[in-house]
UniProtKB/TrEMBL annotation:
Keyword Signal: no
Protein's name according to its UniProt entry: histidine kinase
The PAS domain, residue ranges: 251-322
Coiled-coil intervals: 39-101, 213-247
Primary location: membrane
Record organism: Mucilaginibacter corticis
Record domain Histidine kinase: where: 382-596
């Protein structure tokens, strides 16, 4: 500490002491001092700054450590969020897949205005609407004709009370685009949908069109009535994560609801390893216990011998070439040895990772449906077979009576007997049709292919057909020799079906023309009428079993003639189709390959 100008100041000095000598004798000491205050103060300041920097570095390191930890936590959260998003997408994809391939018609209705939120392809086809005409629109805007029917009120009742509504064989009346009416019959279930708070937000509608079943029942009743009538006639003549979790949960709930409601087995086959992942219901359908291992090889082993190879080939084709997989086959349960009929539906879906594809789908139990179908076919076949014997005897007696009536010159009795023979012939043809349908659907129809000339067949049919359908002008155009390899009796039945159909749908006295020509290696037979014609919307379904065109003319029939004709021609590797304009008549064609 030194004093400058009367003030004490802190200073730093470098001091040196050196001796003074004279003639070798130390006489004194020399003191020197160098002011280093600024240098020392600078060093002190540097040291202070170093300490501050070290402290700052330590604080910065702590901050970096906290930031690194936060980044790790954020990465984990982002990973979970991404997993949730992927799972949500997969669940939504699987739900959409399940809804779209379900045989049931499915639609999800939201709000008091009954707005359609989601709909599958089966329902779109049933409503005859496009997806753009349905999604986001109120039900009564989509189908205003339902306003006078019970469905809107029932939907609001489910929204209000939460009670499930389950109805069977309910009639539904639709209005077609041309203004005509279309009546169908459905089984349907209205199931309330709730959010995570238990509030009702919508209704899951699942319906099965059973028009064919109801019409088949009515058809059998009509058939019985007609049989009775004919017998009488014959006898008398984070927020995003939380939101994602909630959405996933709702998706899972809807997915489980759809699968449980339909009692479906679900499966997943890895396209590379062929690893099979299935639910308990699928194991049950194949006769395994839920806790048991279940592989693809085990599943194939339970398929009956005659179907196993074709099912395996269909699976491999779907995995290698993509496309939809839809096949029906019987299985024998592994433990219970019970035989079940199942229908498997699926397709190839790319994995989100892009490294492989997953072959996924559903299996449903159709044993009851298949059993009912077999019973129905057996019943129709039995009844048809039993009716043929008395008709054959009756036809023989009528022919004997015809001969006696002609010999006696009794024209009235002879004419009456001619009409009886015609009615017996009609009934015989109808019974043969039912018998052939029964054999066809049970796989027992026999095609006896032999080489014959179509010219001979049409010539043989000419007189008999003209006699049977004397109310019309039947014109059989000349046919050049045309050799085919086919079942002569069944091809004759096809021609008779087409002629009968032409007569039935055209006015009495009009022309029906039959022709056969050779074209591009095939024999082409055509039957043309001058009748009412066919609407273009009906043409694609003409050859379906029991299909009847809706019109104002009450024309009897069962809708099996064209179906049976199409099946016979298909089994001959031929083609059958029609060309028609409403009001201008129709022409039915079929082709058969020419014999080599």
């Amino acid at each position: 500490m030194i004093y400058k100008n009367g003030k004490a100041e802190l200073g730093f000095y470098n001091i040196a002491y050196n001796p003074l000598t004279e003639n070798g004798v130390k006489t004194g000491m020399l003191q020197s001092a160098i002011d280093v205050t600024e240098l020392v103060m600078a060093r002190i300041k540097v040291e202070d700054l170093s300490r501050e920097q070290q402290t700052a570095n330590e604080e910065l390191a702590a901050i970096n450590e906290e930031l690194h930890t936060s980044n790790d936590e954020l990465t984990v959260i982002q990973g979970k969020l991404q997993d949730m998003i992927v799972e949500l997408a997969e669940n939504e994809q699987q739900l959409e897949q399940i809804i779209n391939i379900l045989p049931a018609a499915v639609v999800i209705i939201r709000g008091n205005d009954l707005v359609a939120e989601s709909i599958n392809n089966t329902n779109l086809a049933y409503w005859d609407k496009t997806r753009e005409e349905v999604i986001g629109k109120p039900l009564l805007e989509i189908l205003p004709e339902l306003a006078s029917q019970p469905f809107p009120g029932q939907l609001r009742q489910v929204m209000r009370t939460g009670e499930v509504i389950d109805v069977r064989d309910s009639p539904v009346l639709f209005t077609n685009a041309d203004g005509s009416k279309r009546e169908t019959f459905v089984d349907y279930t209205y199931q309330p949908l709730t959010d995570r708070n238990g509030l009702r937000t919508g209704v899951l509608v699942m319906s099965y069109e059973n028009t064919q079943r109801v019409l088949s029942r009515k058809l059998l009743e009509e058939y019985s009535e007609q049989m009775q009538a004919m017998n009488e006639e014959l006898t008398a003549s984070n927020e995003e994560l939380i939101a994602a979790q909630h959405t996933i949960e709702e998706s899972r709930t809807a997915l489980r609801l759809a699968i449980d409601a339909a009692e479906l087995g679900t499966w997943y086959v890895h396209s590379i390893s062929r690893q099979l992942i299935s639910n308990a219901r699928l194991k049950e359908l194949f006769g395994y216990y839920p806790e048991e291992d279940f592989t693809l090889e085990q599943a194939l082993a339970q398929i009956t011998d005659e179907y196993r190879e074709s099912v395996n080939a269909a699976i491999e084709a779907a995995i290698h070439h993509g496309g939809d997989y839809d096949i029906t086959y019987p299985v024998t349960g592994f433990h219970d040895q019970r035989q079940r009929w199942v229908r498997a539906i699926g397709n190839l879906q790319p994995d989100p990772s892009g490294t492989f594809a997953a072959f996924t789908g559903l299996v449903m139990d159709i044993t009851e449906q298949k059993t009912d179908e077999l019973r129905k076919n057996s019943f129709i076949g039995m009844v048809s077979h039993e009716l043929k014997t008395p008709l054959t005897s009756l036809n023989g007696y009528l022919q004997v009576l015809q001969i006696k009536a002609r010999n006696s010159g009794d024209t009235f009795v002879s004419g009456a007997l001619d009409q009886c023979v015609k009615q017996v012939k009609r009934m015989t043809n109808m019974i043969n049709g039912f018998l052939n349908v029964s054999r066809l659907e049970s796989g027992k129809i026999h095609i006896d292919k032999q080489q014959f000339d179509m010219a001979d067949l049409i010539r043989d049919m000419t007189e008999e057909t003209k006699t049977l359908y004397a109310t019309h002008q039947l014109i059989f155009h000349p046919v050049e020799p045309t050799m085919v390899n086919a079942d002569r009796e069944k091809i004759g039945q096809v021609i008779d079906n087409l002629v009968s159909n032409a007569v039935k749908y055209s006015k009495s006295g009009s022309r029906v023309q039959v022709a056969c020509v050779q074209m591009e290696g095939s024999a082409r037979v055509s039957v043309r009428d001058e009748g009412m014609g066919i609407d273009k919307n009906d043409i694609p379904r003409l050859f379906e079993r029991y299909y009847r065109v809706n019109n104002d003319n009450k024309i009897s029939g069962f809708g099996i003639g064209l179906y049976l004709s199409a099946e016979i021609i298909e089994r001959h590797n031929g083609k059958i189709w029609t060309e028609s304009e409403p009001g201008e008549g129709s022409t039915f064609y079929f082709t058969l390959p020419l014999a080599n």
